Amino acid sequence: MAWLGANSITIVNYTFTDNTAGYAGAAIYVGPLSEGCKVINSTFTGNHILGGTGWGGAIVWIGANGTVINSTFERNIAGDGGAIYVASINGTTNITH
What we know:
Blueprint (H helix, E strand, L loop, with lengths): L1 E2 L6 E3 L2 E3 L2 E2 L6 E3 L7 E3 L2 E3 L2 E2 L9 E3 L4 E4 L2 E3 L9 E3 L6 E4 L1
């Protein structure tokens, strides 16, 4: 799932399992023009970047002012950021449990 230029999208109680990507964000890619997106009470299991290189086995977060709350990450694989790779260009990205 790619959020490119998305604002204020919220995902709640969702399960992402065994997704793949060639280089970045096998389950979710939050692009640089996205802002205020949230992932809440969700589960990410077995998502991976093909070949084990690249960024964010589960999530790549480049957008501004993002939030991940009370979510579970298990067996997600990437070269950098097996669970979440954060490269926010503006604002902050908050990750809490």
